[in-house]
Amino acid sequence: MVPDFDLAFHGGEPLLLFRLFLATLVGGMIGWNRFRAGKPAGVGTYALVALGAAFFVAIPILTNSLDALSRVIQGITAGIGFLGAGEIFRDRGERRVRGLTSAAALWATAALGIIAVCGSVALVAAATLIVLLVLVIAPRCERRFPPRVDNSPY
User: Fold this and answer.
1) Domain total of the chain
2) Tens-place pLDDT, residues 9-42
3) What are phi and psi of 89, to 5 degrees?
4) By CB count within 10 A, which of 68, 114, 122, 126 is most buried?
5) 147 in a domain, yes or no?
6) Contact by Cβ (8 Å): 50, 127
7) Integer angstrom CA distances of residue 75 from 15, 115, 119, 129
8) Is residue 106 part of a domain?
9) Is residue 61 part of a domain?
10) 7 falls within a domain
11) Are 100 and 34 in contact (CB under 8 A)?
12) How far is CA 154 from CA 90, 115, 145, in A?
């Protein structure tokens, strides 16, 4: 006997599908910035981080289990930390830690995916713009105003 799969959209599902695409798009935009900066994780990684976070948040929303929503968001927050740790490494030759900004960008991208599923398009657009501005302006400021003293612990 073949199971009867219901593939029709219901209620808010077209909006949810739009929000999943939105999460993927904004994640890809952050990934494009990281790719252009020559970082290891690029468009695909960031798009999938945002989409994955959006998927996990959509599950309790679709099942009307809103009490589970905060636990899901907490799990995403911690889990992305492990993924971000893969972006961070210490360069012994230069005595510097690298990849912290990319790791933070992964974390912010997961949050954008969550906002995309739960929030408004305007909020997602504004938050994405803020993240991109930080990723563009911060390196320029750091080059323009280098630290006066090397206060690195390494």
Assistant:
1) 1
2) 466 788 889 999 999 999 999 999 999 999 888 9
3) -150, 160
4) 114
5) no
6) no
7) 24, 15, 19, 25
8) yes
9) yes
10) no
11) no
12) 9, 37, 21
